[in-house]
Amino acid sequence: MTPSDPAPGVPPTGAAASTGGPARAVDPARPTRLASPGAGAAMVLASCVSLQFGAAFAAQLFPALGPGGVTFLRLAIAAVVLLAVLRPAVRSWTRAQWTAVLLLGVAMAGMNAAFYASIARIPLGIAVTIEFLGPLVLAAALTRRARDAVWVLVAAGGVLALGLGDGHGSGSGGDGGAGLDLAGVGLALVAGAFWAGYILANTRVSTRIPGTGGLAVAIGIGAIAVAPFGGGAVAVVEQPHLLLLAAGTALLASVIPYSLELAALRRLPPRAFSVLLSLEPAVACLAGFLLLAQALTWLQALAVAVVVAASVGSTLSARGKRAPGSPPAQAATP
């Protein structure tokens, strides 16, 4: 998700660059209007809050719908809303365009499914922090600069420190003393890998399909891809109120942050956009604490701060020129 700097919409990095959330694409052109930077900053922060609190609300639906069911409903509802609003001209798409959108849809499915399965096992803030490794590693690989590799190592050190505390993390609500669930950590890493793939696939779609219709169709493809694992969604038939809650999650974790980030990209330079998005792990920790009673140990909180600092540092140390092969600027919500 960057022209001259790190990709807005992903943890800031010199080449590729929320969270988590749930949810991320914009035209590759550089923002043409940088008016109202204060409003743009507020939009990015509001996007982070909406995205991470949406993920926290999603976790509360896991007992009734399961992570797979929540993932399916979130993507399906978001796709319906965006397709109805954007109405992409799919009949004119070529085979190459459809292939690009298909790859993006698969990346979105993997990213969201792995992330939701992760936050069913470990605290939300920790999952988002671990997931940030994906875009950071991608940026370092694309730029091939030693200083970007250093930032990745710093972030990796922070992630390793997450497991050294006494944990509060063996489940979405924590159990007050067990260490981090290794399956949850692994799933967060998988989500990060899919996030990196999402960035590359989204860049490809942005260069092949004008506008944002490709993203809307990709979200629909993602919903179809996770449908076999979304059997828990049938619970909405007997409990219709769950569908309303799932719709709220889709709006909070996809539609609202996506719209806010699009507007913010027109008001902020890419570097400022990425720096603000680096706060997503901290916002996720706050959402987990307020809505899911997930308190971190002091060491885990420090580890999250280290990863945020590495993400900010990677952005601020980026050169003015975009590295060859690096993705253009994009919003971050997957």
Automatic annotation (TrEMBL):
Keywords: Membrane, Transmembrane, Transmembrane helix
EamA domain mapped to chain residues: 183-313
Cross-referenced SUPFAM superfamilies: Multidrug resistance efflux transporter EmrE (SSF103481)
Positions of transmembrane segments: 68-86, 98-116, 122-142, 149-165, 177-201, 213-236, 242-260, 272-292, 298-318
Transmembrane is among the record's keywords: yes
Residue ranges of the region described as Disordered: 1-30
Superkingdom: Bacteria
Family listed: Belongs to the EamA transporter family.
Protein name according to UniProt: DMT transporter permease
